[in-house]
Amino acid sequence: MVWRAAPAHVLGYMAATLVGAATPVALAWLTKAVLDGLAHGRTAALLGLAVTIAVVTTVAAAAAHATQYLRGEVDRRAALRAKDELFAAVTRFTGLTRFESPAFLDRLRLAQQSAANPGRLVDTATSTARGAVTVAGFVGSLAVISPTFTALVLLSAVPALLIELRMSRQRVAMLWRIGPAERREVFYAQLMSTADAAKEIRLFGLGDFLRLRMLAELRTADAARRRMDRREFVVQASLSAVSASVVGAGLVWTILAAGRGELGVGDVAMFVAASAGVQAALNVMVSAGVMAYEQLLTFRHHVEVVSAGSDLPAPRDPQSLPALRRGIELRDVWFRYGDDHPWVLRGVDLFIPNGSTVALVGLNGAGKSTLVKLLCRFYDPTRGAILWDGVDIRDVPPETLRSRIGAVFQDFVAYELTAADNIAVGDLSAVEDGTRIERAAREAGVHDALVALPRGYDTLLSREFDPDPEESSEAEDAPTSGVPSSSGVLLSGGQWQRLALARAFLRSDQDLMILDEPSSGLDPEAEYEIHTRLARLRSGRTSVVISHRLGAVREADRIVVLADGRVTEEGTHASLLADDGTYARLFTRQAAGYRDDVQPTGAAR
Ligand SMILES: Nc1ncnc2c1ncn2[C@@H]1O[C@H](COP(=O)(O)OP(=O)(O)OP(=O)(O)O)[C@@H](O)[C@H]1O
Question: Pocket of ligand 1, candidates 311, 337, 339, 378: which has the most ligand atoms within 8 Å of its Cβ, to mutate?
Fold first, then answer.
């Protein structure tokens, strides 16, 4: 992947690294030649040797700078590609299950970490190669002086390599084990630094509680890292002591041999340079090689995320999805969120006729939102089937199905984007189409509020990002008072809800519109107005509406009561009231609340 991301830079980096690796060997040989020349009075060649040393040193210095620049560039390009691959894969997951799986989220975090600088792998791999070049260069020189000693130095590196490889596997396993603690630590840290949670944290005095929890997670992760570091420290110190003793013994032997006249001054200089060079290079080789191995092991998470197939079974024989004509049928649909979770739906049979509005009603946790998530195929039913004009929606590519559906979810997202973009996310083909965006905003009754914003539709709906990053980065002085120089705007809860509705209006020609609590944050007048508008816009189209405000759904063509995971009542408002069941009880209770308030006024009259 790194090669594909930056082939020329990788080649340049390797070349510059190899030049850097060959330099100490060349300098050692040149120094030996100079010393031998001086010892034997061969002064004629000295000038040439000195000039060569100067040139080699200059080239080495330039190569060092080039290596640094190229390494950075390889890192940047590879990281860009890795993130692109990773997030392209993440957005390709069609269902929601993976985002609710702690093990997957742990893996994703490690994948993100390794995607942050995959070029480091080239770095460590090249360092290993660089070490190998230096070792090879020096080994020849050392072997001339003492083959036995050379063999000893090389052999002493083998156990070090094996032990380090084992430890790197242990380190990777440790990183996986502490993943959950590290993810929780990040969670607490983010909670303490976001505006969304700031109100409750301050009012409930949660600051210390969250900080201590964050530190506890950090300590847990640190303890595991510390144990690993200590083990590595002991092992590495012992290995270094062994190799230092080998080199020390060799040095003693060389000096004694030189004293006996068996070796020349140049040989001693070469031995000192070569033994130190070999040892240092072997260390680099082992540690860089082991690090490369460790990075490869960690990068496995990236590969696994990127190569993970679809989380929902792909249709074996994909069907096209004609415009809805008859309706959508849920046939004996059973669903639970996991094998160890309770059943949420237990055999739901429901028909949503084309062109009608079906309201789903039921107590908290009855499974209404779950049902609409199944309609969008964010999950597949555990048993049973959902049929769109008789076609099982599992036989249709999810993107085809979803292009037919418009929705306002209960937990819609307030994007920290401009107001226009916040509406356009409902249908990205409208991003550049101000007229469509404005029409949708008018239909949702939020146009006036948006034009009144400091920059109208182009106002950034965020207090966390600077609306004018360029202007403020040009300003010489950072604000010191703690008060931001400029800031974006936030909407009220109801205005946000209208904005979410505008997203849905942008797609109002869809076959199926899902409205999960579309008016919970609206004032009574707005609620009435929006529902009237919705009824007009959606007349003759298929909608599924969920609302706890039963007054808002009484006009629905069909009202369906969910309880205990099943459809327990079904009919029009009038027929359900006549049946005097759960719906009638809920409606009467809600209506009584309003009537009690109204009565005193009526009595006064
Ligand atoms: N992603 C999830 N993972 C596990 N359980 C879930 C998930 N979403 C919902 N549940 C569980 O499924 C049940 C039904 O939840 P659902 O949100 O569908 O209810 P609802 O009828 O829409 O409730 P409300 O009226 O409160 O919005 C609840 O018991 C809830 O705890």
Answer: 337
At 31 the pLDDT is 87
Q: What is the pLDDT of residue 595?
A: 66
CA 369 to ligand 1 center in whole angstroms: 7
Distance CA 374, CA 393 (A): 10
Task: Give 370 Cα–ligand 1 centroid separation in angstroms.
Answer: 6
Could you tell me which of 442, 441, 332 has the C-alpha nearest to residue 387? 332
In which element (H, E) is residue 46 found? helix 46-92
pLDDT band per the 50, 70, 90 thresholds, residue 265 = confident
Please give the full DSSP string across 103-149, using - where no structure is assigned.
HHHHHHHHHHHHHH-THHHHHHHHHHHHHHHHHHHHHHHHHHH-HHH
**Cβ(334) – ligand 1 distance below 6 Å:** no
Q: Does this chain's domain 2-307 share its CATH topology with 322-404+544-605?
A: no
Q: Distance, CA 200 to ligand 1 centroid (Å)?
A: 24
The length of the chain in residues reads: 605
Interface confidence, given as ipTM, is 0.98
Tokens of 400: 């085809």
User: For 344-403, how does the pLDDT look when each residue is reduced to its tens digit (9 = 90+)?
Assistant: 999 999 999 999 999 999 989 999 999 999 999 999 999 999 999 999 999 999 999 998
Q: Using alpha carbons, select from 87, 91, 92 the residue that is nearest to residue 111.
A: 87
- Of ligand 1's listed atoms, the one at least distance from the Cα of 100 is 1
Mean pLDDT within 415-443: 90
Give the mutation target among 330, 370, 374 for probing the ligand 1 site: most ligand atoms within 8 A of CB. Answer: 370
Any ligand 1 atom below 6 A from CB of 364: yes
- Which residues lie closer than 8 Å to 12 by C-beta, 6 or more apart? 66, 70
Whole-number mean pLDDT of the chain? 86
Q: Kindly state if the Cβ of 366 falls inside 6 Å of ligand 1.
A: yes
Tokens for 525? 């007048």
Give the CATH fold of the 2-307 domain.
ABC transporter transmembrane region fold (1.20.1560)
Find the 346 Cα to ligand 1 centroid distance in Å: 14
What is the predicted pLDDT for the residue at 229? 93
CA of 372 to the centre of ligand 1 (A): 11
CA 373 to ligand 1: nearest atom: 18
CATH 3.40.50.2300 fits 322-404+544-605, yes or no: no
Residue 219 has pLDDT above 60, yes or no: yes
Contacts of residue 564, Cβ cutoff 8 Å, sequence gap at least 6 = 346
Render pLDDT for 125-175 as a digit per residue (tens, 0 to 9): 877 887 787 788 778 777 877 788 778 777 877 888 888 889 889 998 999
- Six token digits for residue 555: 């006009």
Percent of the chain with pLDDT over 90: 43
For the chain, what are the domain ranges?
Answer: 2-307, 322-404+544-605
Take atom 29 of ligand 1 and give the residue whose Cα is closest. Answer: 365
Q: 363 alpha carbon to ligand 1 midpoint, in Å?
A: 11
Pairing of strands 512-516, 542-546: parallel
Q: Is 114 in the pocket of ligand 1 (CB under 6 A)?
A: no
In whole angstroms, give the CA distance from residue 61 to residue 67. Answer: 10
Give 547-586 pLDDT, tens digit per residue.
888 887 888 899 999 998 999 999 999 999 999 999 999 8
CA of 455 to the centre of ligand 1 (A): 39
